[in-house]
From TrEMBL, chains A, B:
Keywords on record: Oxidoreductase
Stored PANTHER family: PREPHENATE DEHYDROGENASE (PTHR21363), PREPHENATE DEHYDROGENASE [NADP(+)] (PTHR21363:SF0)
Cross-referenced SUPFAM superfamilies: 6-phosphogluconate dehydrogenase C-terminal domain-like, NAD(P)-binding Rossmann-fold domains
Annotated family: Belongs to the prephenate/arogenate dehydrogenase family.
GO terms for MF: NAD+ binding; prephenate dehydrogenase (NAD+) activity; prephenate dehydrogenase (NADP+) activity
Taxonomic path: Bacteria, Bacillati, Actinomycetota, Actinomycetes, Micromonosporales
Gene3D superfamilies: 6-phosphogluconate dehydrogenase C-terminal like domain, NAD(P)-binding Rossmann-like Domain
Residue stretches making up the Prephenate/arogenate dehydrogenase domain: 9-291
Name assigned to this protein: Prephenate dehydrogenase
């Protein structure tokens, strides 16, 4: 049965919004025994109407579970985590799906949960929010970052096995600070730029004419500006220093483009645009080399952790994680020309 | 027969790249008598292989045509236009599909072509370039800007009728400078921001990790950075002053977002993001009111031109244009709460 590999056959989801609801229904469809809780009674009612147990108390929802996905808004995570931890067995794996990882990782470690909380971030989403927008297929095949700490390698293995089995996830192992640094460019800056572009149009005297002309480039470039402002603000505030640092880098490249444009320097402008296109082309046409890596029972978890983090930092991911009798076998993929090391 | 309304049954396309090729094959599929020319002999050969006449000389391709679409790179347009004009009848309607309009409009007027050259810009495209990427459906239903000058109203009517018939275009009438001002925000700034984001990632030490995490927001936000650098550079250079002016506005909004973020001011940040979302929501859920407007034979073209330009500036468009015995009837649509006037 799915979930058996990691021994996580009984799962709970706390917070049944867009991501939590999508996780919940996919776990249910995969045959796991699931329960859910949300602070909103209406959301709990909707969950029940879709055939999933949703008791009124979070403690009841998570009691006796092997794994709990904590899916509320970013600022609520440390408190929810403490409540869920207190109501679950010390073997129960805990994870979250927030878009920023260092803060919640630090909070969990301070709560003594480093051995069973594995910070997570599935790289998928939608402009809409809430259970109504949730869909079991939303996270299928997504890149799913997991950030195991020094004492969390065993929990990581079990969770990774579940994510690969149920979501066909590409599991990207990273340290929490590395995730936040990469996510600043991969997700948070795109939200900031989309907001700036849409905001400038909103204030422009030409607003209606601009919207009349808006085709692919504007529509794509501002899509995430259509998301809930609170959610985006929480994300940006949760990774403030990295976002501001990367904004300087993006601003520097923008200044170079604007400088070449101002000078009418076609060669310089084309050169910068060609440089930018390299990253975009790499995104579309990525080739990977695959390998298997095993860690026997009793091996030093620090070596395994170093391997995992190096894999993620190099742009790699896992599509297989087999746990048996204390040993683990990973199926891993690295970009074909990896600047590893 | 399609094209009869405007009397434009014989058409030519000069420059058979992504847009020109798409125009060509849609005109052919609609039953028009078409011919094409491209400076590249290989492109002419490919056109012939797809069953369209493509003589070796541009003069032969355009001779005797009722309408010619000039579709080459922006910097080549004035020279190509002069060559095409010299080889066509003075009644032959000329248009282009470039992404910037004021410069080519001025050049055409200087060449004495204001009465038959109607600057055009279909708001559609693709990251790829060239005839291989062309598709008859690429421009179906697109917003298609046309910029009639004071002496070009008759040519505008005939061309608009053709575009509505063949492409089901939403024809947006604007002055060339108004187009360039709106396109700066609707298209050129999105290209610039996409380039800055992709360029910063390309230079980042975290490049591979960022690409591993890149999901919707990055992928959408940088899509146009995957286009040909020369094409994007020509577009930006062709509308330099407006692009730089609007960059200041986008930069100002970005500074407000960054300021709120730096200050940790969640309310201010959420407020700015909510403001930005208003424009984005208006793009998705636009409602229009429709009306009919007729101009009888012998009416003052200046009145018609003023009507058309006001329609476009207010975010409106035409989906019908019926020409008969010197009169015209337009089917027009305006945003439901138009800030007209």
């Amino acid at each position: 049965m799915v979930g058996e590999a990691g021994g996580l056959a009984r799962a709970a989801v706390v917070g049944t919004g867009l991501i939590g609801g999508s996780v919940l229904f996919r776990l249910r469809d995969a045959g796991l025994d699931v329960a859910a809780w949300d602070p909103d009674p209406a959301a709990r009612r909707q969950v029940r109407e879709r055939g999933v147990a949703a008791p009124d108390e979070v403690e009841e929802a998570v009691a006796g579970r092997h794994v709990v996905f904590v899916c509320g808004p970013l600022p609520t995570l440390p408190a929810t985590l403490a409540r869920v931890a207190a109501a679950t067995d010390d073997r129960c794996v805990l994870t979250d799906v927030g878009s920023v990882k260092a803060e919640v990782a630090t909070a969990a470690t301070a709560q003594g949960l480093g051995h069973r909380f594995v910070p997570g971030h599935p790289m998928a989403g939608a402009d809409r929010a809430g259970l109504g927008a949730a869909a079991p297929e939303l996270l299928d095949g997504a890149a799913w970052v997991l950030c195991p700490g020094p004492t969390g390698v065993d929990a990581f293995r079990r969770l990774a096995a579940l994510l690969v089995d149920v979501f066909h996830a590409r599991v990207v192992p990273m340290s929490a600070p590395e995730h936040d640094a990469a996510a600043a460019l991969a997700s948070h800056l795109p939200h900031l730029l989309a907001g700036a572009l849409a905001g400038a149009v909103q204030r422009s005297a030409l607003r209606d004419a601009v919207l009349a002309l808006a085709a692919g480039s504007f529509s794509d470039g501002t899509r995430v500006a259509g998301g809930p402002p609170e959610r985006t603000a929480n994300m940006l505030l949760g990774n403030r220093d990295r976002v501001l640092a990367e904004l300087i880098e993006v601003g520097a490249f923008l200044d170079e483009l604007a400088g070449a444009l101002r000078a009418g320097d076609a060669a310089a402008l084309t050169g910068r645009l060609a440089e930018a296109r390299t990253a975009r082309a790499a995104l579309r046409g990525r080739a990977f080399t695959s390998h298997r890596r095993e860690f026997p029972a009793g091996a030093d978890p620090a070596v395994e952790l170093a391997y995992l983090r190096e894999l993620g930092a190099a742009g790699g991911h896992l599509t297989g994680c087999r746990v048996a009798a204390g040993a683990v076998g990973y199926t891993a993929h690295l970009p074909a020309t990896p600047p590893l090391g």
